[in-house]
Structure formats: structure tokens, C-alpha cells
Specification:
By secondary structure, this protein is of the alpha/beta class. The protein has 2 domains: 2-88, Alpha-Beta Plaits, CATH 3.30.70.260; 95-287, Formyl transferase, N-terminal domain (Rossmann fold, 3-Layer(aba) Sandwich). The protein contains 8 helices and 14 strands. Strands 8-7-6-9-10-11-12 form a 7-stranded mixed beta sheet. Strands 2-3-1-5-4 form a 5-stranded antiparallel beta sheet, with helices on one face. A hairpin with a 4-residue loop joins strand 2 and strand 3. It is globular and about 55 Å long. The two termini are 24 Å apart.
């Protein structure tokens, strides 16, 4: 038996769960975990299902599910708003980390990766500074120093994309990478780049702030992990957390609390992405527990 994870986004209608379960039954599928959500704002249905099956061919399962849903769909592709993916649970996504000089998020990710607390592979770490080379190479991971300035940005980002393609990178994580990505690079990495922001995002002003917060999918107030878009710090929110402080906290203590919050938020976002728990609906995310 092989364990697979299926994710599905499609227009909501009766019979979707029945069709998916019927297709899984054809391959001897036994569902071990399931979560679903019908979004009233978009009329889209979201589903994440973990199942054991007699086959190890995830693509074949995807074709059976697509046929049961009556859509002309290639695995991982789109058809009339349908986004369907099936992959083995054992698959470890390839993740590349971008960082500058601040190392707390990087070190946390490397610790969790080294101790199998994050189901990912890290083939490379990229930085616009050389400060963290020893820390990265100590883990046996290649470190790429790609300095950047206004004049060299196009070449530097081309080098980043070359690494993404060379290593078949599925996710890029900005672990306190203190550079703004160009609109072109944001477009090239759309839906597969996560940033950690050291603040509460977003801050809504004016009328109907709670309605606007709902439209943006706000989770909590605190450090924020979000998908990277060309609109700076306005990408779809994945996870947030908060640290309470009082008048007695010193600036150094605030930094310590803030960095600890950033570590937790970013690691959860990366783990949930690696486990296919995050489904992207425009400017919002559905994050299944």
C-alpha cells in the first residue's frame, strides 16, 4: 500500500465527494484523513484527502478522479477552474532558502530539517551577503553568495531562477531576506514563494476594516507568513501569531520575543505547505488542520 495526498479546488456542486471517493475505491483507496471547505465568497469547493491505495502511481489516481469529476484534466493542471493534485505522501518537496544577515529563521528551518521535523529537502541557501556561509555549509548545504545592487539586480535574480530550475525547486522561502523582489521574479514564483514579515499584516484603515480583513483572510495579529506577490507585504496570508508585551520589556527583549514569533510562524507555514495543507484562493488561503 502507498499513502497519497490529494488536493482539489473546483466549482462547488453536489456530488464532488461522492465522485472522488468512488474514484479512490477503484484503486483500493482507504481514506485516513479528510478535510473540506465550501467557500461562499467564491463558490469554490476545497478538499484535502490522505489515503492508502494499492497503486503507487499518483498520476493514474489523478486521472481517475478527473474522469469521475467529468473534467478534462492533466495531473496538476487546470480545467474550468479545477485544480487537482495527487502525490505520494513520502515525496519531500524541494525548498530553497533566501536569507540576508539575520539568521534566526534560517537556523530554525535548518534545525527542523536536520531533525526530520520538516518534510522537505534543502539543496541550496542563497544570500546577498556572505556572513552565514559557515553556518549553512556546516549542515552540508551549498551556500550561494549572490550580492545585489540596483544595477546588478536583473543578473542576480536570473542566477536565483537558474538555481530554482537546476534543483527543481518547488518552494522558495524568504527567511528574513532583506531585498525586494522584482515584479518579474514575483510573477515567476507566484504561489511558490513564502515570506516572513516581522509585523502584523495587513493594517486596515478606513471604513469596514473587519470586512476587509475577512476579504484578505486574516488569521491573527502578529508576525505574518504570506505568499510573495508584486504588492509588497500584501500577499495571501498563511499564518500569524502574537507575542504579548508590557511596559517592562526592554528593546532587546522585544527583539527576542519578535524573533521567536517569526521562527514559529515561518516553520508552521513551510510545514503546512510541504504537507499540501494550504490551498490558494486568489488573495486568500484555505489552511486545513
Amino acid at each position: 500500500m502507498t499513502s497519497h495526498v490529494l488536493t482539489l479546488i473546483c466549482p462547488d456542486r453536489p456530488g464532488i465527494v461522492h465522485a472522488v471517493c468512488g474514484a479512490l475505491l477503484e484503486v483500493g483507496g482507504n481514506i485516513t484523513e479528510n478535510a473540506q471547505f465550501g467557500d461562499p465568497d467564491t463558490d469554490l469547493f476545497c478538499m484535502r484527502t490522505v489515503f492508502d491505495a494499492d497503486t503507487d502511481d499518483s498520476d493514474e489516481v489523478a486521472r481517475l478522479v478527473a474522469a469521475a469529476l467529468d473534467v478534462d484534466q492533466v495531473p496538476g493542471g487546470r480545467d474550468a477552474g479545477v485544480r487537482l493534485r495527487v502525490r505520494p505522501v513520502a515525496h519531500r518537496p524541494v525548498v530553497m532558502v533566501l536569507v540576508s544577515r539575520t539568521d534566526h529563521c534560517l537556523e530554525d528551518l535548518l534545525y527542523r530539517w536536520r531533525n526530520d521535523l520538516l518534510p522537505i529537502d534543502i539543496p541550496a541557501v542563497v544570500s546577498n551577503h556572505d556572513d552565514l556561509r559557515d553556518q549553512v555549509e556546516r549542515h552540508g548545504i551549498p551556500f550561494h553568495h549572490l550580492p545585489v545592487s540596483g544595477d546588478t539586480r536583473p543578473d542576480q535574480e536570473a542566477a536565483i531562477l537558474d538555481l530554482v530550475e537546476r534543483h527543481d525547486v518547488e518552494l522558495v522561502v524568504l527567511a528574513r531576506y532583506m531585498q525586494i523582489l522584482s515584479d518579474d521574479l514575483c510573477t515567476r514564483l507566484a504561489g511558490r514563494a513564502i515570506n516572513i514579515h516581522h509585523s502584523f499584516l495587513p493594517g486596515f484603515k478606513g471604513a469596514r476594516p473587519y470586512h476587509r480583513a475577512h476579504e484578505r483572510g486574516v488569521k491573527l495579529v502578529g508576525a505574518t507568513a504570506h505568499f510573495v506577490t508584486a504588492d509588497l507585504d500584501e500577499g495571501p496570508i498563511i499564518e500569524q501569531d502574537v507575542a504579548r508585551v508590557t511596559h517592562a520589556h526592554t528593546p532587546d527583549q522585544l527583539v527576542e520575543l519578535g524573533q521567536d514569533t517569526e521562527r514559529r510562524v515561518l516553520s508552521r507555514a513551510v510545514r503546512w505547505w510541504a504537507e499540501d495543507r494550504i490551498l490558494l484562493l486568489g488573495d486568500r488561503t484555505v489552511v486545513f488542520p
